[in-house]
Specification:
This protein has one domain: Transposase IS200-like (Alpha-Beta Plaits), CATH 3.30.70.1290. Helices cover about 40% and strands about 20% of the residues. A hairpin with a 2-residue loop joins strand 2 and strand 3. It is globular, with a radius of gyration of 15 Å.
Length: about 150
């Protein structure tokens, strides 16, 4: 083939360290746009970003030469540094070490986007741990519950 053609969509989830409730509305209003800028500067597209005070969900489109692990590492590191540089944001802010990433088919993009943007409604009945376990099982990912959360 003469060119490279791709549309790689990922649903990425990660939590604050120990699921501390750091991401209040004030933090979210500043943090989410900053995270979008990080994704854009890395050559990706942030299609949706949502979450709760203890975790975030991102729907991202990546170029084929950008490993999802590199993008997540850079988003977490740069956003954490940015929070620490802000005088009025939590000084002890941190992300957990790991993350979950799932590929998304084109036919499911709208449903995943809606799911991400409606996290508050979803979490009225489901905890983050229940949500994460359900996502892992839905995608056939084996895990040890003892190492699920930090």
């Amino acid at each position: 083939m003469a060119g490279t053609f791709s549309r790689l969509l990922y649903h990425v989830v990660f939590s604050t360290k120990h699921r501390t409730l750091f991401i209040d509305p004030k933090v979210r209003a500043e943090l989410y746009p900053y995270m979008e800028g990080i994704v854009r500067n890395l050559g990706g597209w942030l299609l949706a970003l949502g979450g709760m005070p203890d975790h975030v969900h991102l729907l991202i489109r990546l170029k084929p030469d950008m490993p999802v692990s590199d993008l997540v590492r850079d988003v977490k590191a740069n956003s954490s540094k940015w929070v620490h540089d802000q005088r009025d944001l939590p000084a002890d802010f941190a992300w957990q070490k790991g993350y979950a990433a799932f590929t998304v088919s084109e036919s499911q993009e709208g449903a995943v986007r809606s799911y991400i943007l409606n996290q508050e409604k979803h979490h009225r009945r489901t905890s983050f741990e229940e949500e994460l376990v359900a996502l892992l099982r839905k995608h056939g990912i084996e895990f040890d519950p003892a190492y699920l959360l930090d």
